[in-house]
Amino acid sequence: MNAIETLSVSAGTQAACSALNVHRSRYYRYRQPKRVHQRASPPLKLSDAERQRVHDVLVSPAFVDQAPATVAANLSDEGLHLCSVRSMYRIFHERNQVRERRRGHQRTHYAKPELVAMAPKQCWSWDITKLKGPATWQYFYLYVILDLFSRYVVGWMVANRANGVQGCESDS
Q: What is the sign, positive or negative, of the torsion defined by CA atoms of 122, 127, 133, 139?
């Protein structure tokens, strides 16, 4: 845009924009000061005291291990409506409390299994590949057994069905 400003002094804005293949409207939009739009606060937004009251109810012993949707349903059964379920989630999000709320529920760390082979024929792996056939909606299934150490194909088979037992070819 600086090049257009420099060229527009001698050649004019229209000629500078067409020479640099930039639309004039884009250039004029770039020159205007950036406007920051402040969103108006929603008219039904909860006050700080109301938000604190909702949070106190959500973390009370009666509801501490329930999801906000369950809390809202239980409160509406009692004839009490504090706010929407989404507002409850917003209140939790403000306080960094969006997490698992059930008592004693902890995720266990799952260690990804790692297979190691130090020599041939110690560890094998397998794969099934679906191959397109000569006709529409016709497939063949290629079963392959691999040696992890050498990465050689130990055995393979092509079948018409995923559970079909047909001729087997082997390289070993």
A: positive
Residue 8, H or E segment: helix 2-11
Q: How far apart are CA 139 and CA 158, in angstroms?
A: 10
Q: Smallest Cα–Cα separation from 103: which of 135, 67, 74?
A: 67
Confidence category of residue 172, pLDDT binned at 50, 70, 90: very low
Output Rg (C-alpha) for the chain, integer angstroms.
Answer: 33
8 Å CB contact between 7 and 15: yes
Cβ–Cβ < 8 Å for 26, 62 = no
Orientation of helix 48-58 relative to helix 68-77, angle to 10°: 100
| pLDDT tens digits for range 85-97 | 999 999 999 998 8
Tokens of 58: 């959500």
At 105, the pLDDT band (50, 70, 90 cuts) reads low
Query: Domain ranges in the chain?
Result: 2-31, 48-94, 124-170
Tell me the whole-structure pTM to 2 decimals. 0.42
Residue-level pLDDT at 158 = 93
In single-letter form, the type of residue at position 51 comes to: R
User: Measuring CA to CA, which residue among 30, 27, 29, 31 is closest to residue 18?
Assistant: 27
